[in-house]
Structures are given as structure tokens and as C-alpha cells.
Amino acid sequence: xxxxxxxxxxxxxxxxxxxxxxxxxxxxxxxxxxxxxxxxxxxxxxxxxxxxxxxxxxxxxxxxxxxxxxxxxxxxxxxxxxxxxxxxxxxxxxxxxxxxxxxxxxxxxxxxxxxxxxxxxxxxxxxxxxxxxxxxxxxxxxxxxxxxxxxxxxxxxxxxxxxxxxxxxxxxxxxxxxxxxxxxxxxxxxxxxxxxxxxxxxxxxxxxxxxxxxxxxxxxxxxxxxxxxxxxxxxxxxxxxxxxxxxxxxxxxxxxxxxxxxxxxxxxxxxxxxxxxxxxxxxxxxxxxxxxxxxxxxxxxxxxxxxxxxxxxxxxxxxxxxxxxxxxxxxxxxxxxxxxxxxxxxxxxxxxxxxxxxxxxxxxxxxxxxxxxxxxxxxxxxxxxxxxxxxxxxxxxxxxxxxxxxxxxxxxxxxxxxxxxxxxxxxxxxxxxxxxxxxxxxxxxxxxxxxxxxxxxxxxxxxxxxxxxxxxxxx
Length: 475
Prior knowledge:
By secondary structure, the protein is α+β, with helices and mostly antiparallel strands. It is 44% helix and 19% strand. The radius of gyration is 27 Å and the shape is globular. The two termini are 37 Å apart.
């Protein structure tokens, strides 16, 4: 069987291409994407495909990146495929979003591909991942501790993104190019093993190939099998989800799960249902780990009123025969038009009779050291400030020259701007720092420090968790 026929059979089996499709081709100029462009252009007439190749210059490799862009343009002229290039300052985007260069570049590329597909009315986006990429991803996910879904690696189809070369090895791709006299460019950053994926590609996978020939193919085949198992499990979990999960009418955006429904389901399925519910309420999947799923699952054996504090301000509460998954967020306004407010999440965690508050916090992941979240003795805090509800009184806002913070356990205070001055923060920048405060009394300066009052100890009965709203992006 020829390589071309192998790709055609794969696309037919996986239903990746249909007659009349409009396809955006992600073209880097590397061997994989050149092979993808060549194959799709060779299939263009018989499938009546509309094609457009898109190249992203990441603004990282200077003249080498310009060389790649020029190469891609010439290649598309050769195959008579429309071409568009876009330039992006990925290092600046990475710094802005707090991402690594690889993640920021991938995020920009896919967003631009989607945008271009919308503009042209195309229904497919083809990228050049192959069998070795899938094996690398499985290894990467494995060492990260991913479960079934992650271990299926890269999938051949995700929305309108398709991967027609996932049936080929890297060696087959290079052979295809050689047989057809096609050149390609090499990204010098791929030769370095400094990045995790590059290390797996350049060191780990070749080592496994020495131990067991065709190791990459075998890993990819296992990933394909696990993908089918994952799809089967997801269908079964969806049935459980439909039976025991419903919207919570009193709290829009929240979900109600039947405790009996979760207990009667197979443990793996109930955990998948809980994971899905948390992700839906949180609005993302990133960093929603097994730890949080098990914390919610344990509520099935706790009495009504117990709650656990999860990621991104999401809280799970046992209410009689149900568990509620909800976001306890509130936009706290400040009476000033020129002050930019920030969300602060406040959650009260009750300590059961016989439990130790310090042990409970340890089970929640310990005392944070990033000054984005802090635990307080809720009762002490209510008494100190003579308030009825910390959740109603604590606001997120910008720092002010009149703000004070208790920097000693006995309550002695210091001006917040003086604290920022000690941290070498310039005067004109101090007013831009976010704080969580009750009136002028600051509990936390975002990312800098927290106050030293109302600490949690062995006698604490109610823990108040205060955290800044931290937004993250999906990779």
C-alpha cells in the first residue's frame, strides 16, 4: 500500500474528509506539514477540496523564522494553494498570560486557525501531527499522572481540527518527501532537549526504540485502543450523569448531584461524573485533578452541611441527600469610578467535632505560600471586626494610601504603601496592587503578603478561605 493510499484509507475510516470540504492547513515548513500540504493538494481534485495554507511566524527565531515563512510561500505557489502568513510576538504574549513559549505559541496558532476558518467559511483545520507525536504525548501525559482520557494522546479529530497524518510514522513522512523530491526546513529549537516534549522526542523515545523496535508505533496503537475504551466509558458515565445530575434552580450555574445515584454507580463512573460536574461549574478543565474529585466523593459519606473548597472558587456542599457544586464568587464593588475591582472568593469550611483544623487544611493542600489565598479563623475575624458575615464584608479592590495591615500577631499595623515600599515597589505602581480588605483593614496584598491576625489553630471551629480570583487559560 502506498503512503497516499494509507492516508486516504485512514481519512475514510475516521471520517476526516468529505467531498467539498474547505480546509485550513497549518504549515510550518517542517517535514510533517510539508507532507500534509503535498498530500491534501494531491487529493484536492478528487475530493473537490478548497484549501488555504496558514503560516505563523512566532517572532522568536529572527532570520530563521523569516526563512521559514519565505519557504512556505514558495511551496504554496508551487502547489497552487492560497497562502497566508501572520506574525505574532509570542514572547510578549507568553509573559502577558503567564505561559511558557510553547503553550503561548500553540494557543495563538489554534486561535488564528479558527479565526481564518471562520473568515473563509471553511469547516476543517488540518494539522500535521503523526504517530510519533501521539506516542510522545502519551509519555508526556503518563509522567504528568494523567488518567484514561489523557493517555489516549492526540486524537485524529477534535471539533473541526483533523489530523490526517496520524496513521504515519516520522520515518514514513520523511520517505514520502524523499520519494517526491520535496524539501523542508528545520526549526532549530526542535533540536534542543531543553523543553519537556523535545526531551521526550530526542532522548526518551529513541531510547525506547533501541530497547524495543517500533516502540513508538506500539505506544500509538495502545493510545488508539485507550481512546476507544475512553469513548465507551464516557458514554456509560453520561448515562449516570443524566440520571443523577441536574441544574440547581436556586443558584444559576450550579449543579445538584444525587448522593444515592453516585453511590449506586460503579466507582470509576461516579468519579467521571463528579469530574465533569466540577469542570462544568468551574468553566475549565485545567488543574482539576483527581484530588478534587475524591474530596467531593468523600462528601457522600459525610453529614449534611459539610463542604470542601475546590479550584477556581468552586465549592462542593453536602445538602441532605444531594451534593451541590457551585461557584461562591461575588463582585465586590467600591464606591469609586476610577478603582478597578477584583473578585475575591470567600468560603467558610466547618470543622467537625473531634477534627483538627490544621489537619483539615493539610488535607486541602496545606497553607498557601503564594499570597493569593489564606485561611483565617472565621470566628476570631468576625469578633475582631464586629461583623456578621465575612463573605459580605470582605471586598477586592485596588490599594489606597490610607490602607493598613496588621503585620504582627498582636494586631500592630503598618501602612500598606510602606509594605510595598519595603518590597521595592515604585511609588506610582503601589496603587495598582490588588488587596482583599474589610474597610481600610487589609487582609491580603495580592502576590505580596498576608496579615498576621486571626490565625487558624487547633481550636478553630470555622475556617474562612479567602482567595483572589485567578483566571487561567486553556491550553
